[in-house]
Write a structure and sequence with these properties.
The complex is a heterodimer. Chain A is mostly helical. Chain A is 76% helix and 3% strand. In chain A, α1 runs antiparallel to α8 (191-216), α3 packs antiparallel against α4 and α5 packs antiparallel against α8. Classes of the chains: A mainly alpha, B alpha/beta.
Chain lengths: 295, 235
């Protein structure tokens, strides 16, 4: 029987990891909702941010947290360029954008994976900074600094996105396009402009997520595929269209995987996870806090 | 003033408009009547830029606007309240109205516009923090019209504003349109199945059939016309 100490430890690490899943899910869900674009390269961009953090640390001795201020704006611009060059033209021609965008972004993901393999070799890497492996204790439960930092970044990023969507005119336009594209266009919203900015924001959050991931996991050029599964899981579980839902789902999935690992062998953890997911979707097909599709 | 000349519009290989010409003079109330599938909705969608024409011209105060994007056309003051309303269901009434004033010039006057539409539609003031999707059909239609007014229209185009509403609510919507039509600098272009009501408000009306304009006359004349009464008004 696991001790209460083990359970608290799992609770803490689950919560912290969940925050990173949430931030990945928020950006991915934004694209999906607003543009009907399923960006399979979302986690690949996160991985690229991981490598940027790694490279800056190894060759320039710069702390990964500082790389955040480089990769976030860089990815924002990247997102706008990719939208203008690839997604936008595709959206004009494709009849079924969801499917077409998956093919396009999967290609992009493969391209990036190979570029990263060429640049950094396929071996797994670990980012080592002064606070790696250090922890503080709450009674006997150890809380690694890296996990706390990752969680804080995740929380700040998701809050920023939430406030942007709720409190600014541009954010309101993003939600309007999401809910009714024609209605938004008739209000004077430039759909292309709002979509490109949304894509930029989405990739910027992938950069933030990447920095969190670099502190927590070892990585190699194909790590993004495993993360992608969790992204899908978080967004579907939380509900496409609900930032609080995705945040909650990220935290829950982090908790479920870590806590169930205390009780059962690791190989069974995904069975529990997907079992819970299936049950939730049977009871609430739109996800935990998802809203019904507007007519 | 809006002038549409010889407009031709197709969906893929299906031609829907066959050389449609209409004029909406300043400060006027114009309506288009005709049976389902006549192309009335397509005509409005083409004017507001949601649909690209094959040929023909749309001129607004001397400026060619066909081929412009919907947001640019919205910026000129041509505001379309589409069939099915197209409100934002998961946003509050207030947010929906604010979206109407999205363009910078309108955004500067958002508070002024809000008090104007709340005066016109007091129910929206009471419901302003309610989610738009939870309101009744009639209230949603009022919201759609109010949102359009937030864009400071010079030409307001309404597509079936009373469709699916209770008779009482439909009468209410038409009363609102009547009071709007008296306002300075606002023209109305109305497409409606409630043809008697529409014609009685109209300075001018067009009868559309199979993608063509069949007749053009003052609303009152069409109301008295034998063949129009028989075919469209069921009298």
């Amino acid at each position: 029987m696991p001790t209460s100490f083990e359970i608290f430890q799992a609770l803490a690490s689950g919560l912290l990891l969940g925050g990173v899943y949430a931030i990945l899910g928020v950006g991915f869900g934004l694209c999906w909702g607003v543009m009907k674009v399923i960006n399979l390269s979302h986690s690949t961009f996160a991985l690229l941010a991981v490598y940027i953090a790694y490279w800056m640390n190894v060759s320039l001795k710069i702390d990964p947290l500082v790389s955040l201020f480089v990769s976030t704006p860089l990815f924002f611009v990247c997102g706008i360029v990719i939208y203008r060059l690839l997604i936008g033209p595709l959206a004009k021609r494709a009849e079924e954008l969801v499917a077409a965008s998956m093919v396009l972004t999967f290609g992009l993901a493969i391209l990036m994976e190979n570029a990263m393999q060429w640049a950094w070799k396929p071996d797994p890497r670990v980012l080592n900074v002064s606070y790696t492996g250090k922890a503080f204790f709450i009674s006997r439960v150890s809380i690694p600094y890296t996990a706390v930092i990752g969680f804080a970044i995740a929380l700040v990023t998701t809050s920023c996105i939430y406030l942007f969507l709720k409190k600014t005119y541009l954010g309101m336009a993003v939600r309007a396009v999401w809910q009714n594209k024609e209605g938004a266009a008739l209000c004077g919203v430039n759909i292309d402009r709002v979509s490109s900015i949304t894509f930029g924001i989405s990739l910027a959050t992938a950069a933030a997520a990447g920095v969190c991931l670099s502190l927590i996991f070892s990585f190699n050029p194909s790590s993004h595929l495993g993360w992608l599964i969790y992204i899908f899981l978080v967004v579907i579980f939380g509900g496409v269209g609900s930032i609080p839902g995705v945040l909650l789902a990220g935290l829950l999935i982090g908790l479920i995987t870590n806590i169930s690992a205390v009780f059962i062998p690791n190989a069974w953890v995904n069975m529990i996870l997907f079992g819970i997911l299936a049950t939730v979707l049977l009871l609430r097909p739109t996800g935990l806090l998802g809203q019904r599709e507007a007519r | 003033m809006l002038e549409v000349h010889d407009l031709v519009v197709s969906y893929d290989s299906l031609q829907v408009l066959w050389g449609v010409s209409i004029q909406v003079p300043e400060d006027s109330f114009v309506s288009i009547i005709g049976s389902n599938g006549a192309g009335k909705t397509t005509l409005l969608r083409t004017i507001s830029g949601l649909k690209k024409p094959e040929s023909g011209s749309i001129v607004w105060n001397g400026m060619e606007i066909s081929g412009m994007k919907p947001d640019e056309i919205c910026g000129l003051g041509i505001i379309h309240v589409p069939e099915g309303r197209h409100i934002f269901p998961n946003m509050t009434v207030l947010e929906n109205l604010k979206m109407g004033a999205y363009l910078p010039e309108n955004r500067r006057r958002v508070n002024e516009s809000l008090s104007y539409v709340f005066e016109k539609f007091p129910i929206l003031a009471q419901r302003k923090s309610q989610y738009a999707g939870t309101m009744s059909g009639g209230e949603q239609q009022m919201l759609a019209i109010a949102r359009a007014l937030m864009s400071r229209p010079k030409l307001l185009m309404l597509d079936e504003p009373s469709l699916g509403l209770s008779p009482k609510m439909a009468a209410n919507i038409f009363r609102q349109l009547e009071s709007l039509s008296g306002e300075e600098g606002l023209s109305i272009l109305l497409v409606s199945q409630e043809q008697t009501r529409a014609l009685s408000l109209s300075d001018k009306a067009y009868v559309m059939e199979n993608g063509r304009i069949m007749r053009e006359a003052p609303g009152e004349d069409l109301l008295k016309d034998e063949s129009v009464r028989k075919h469209y008004l069921g009298l």
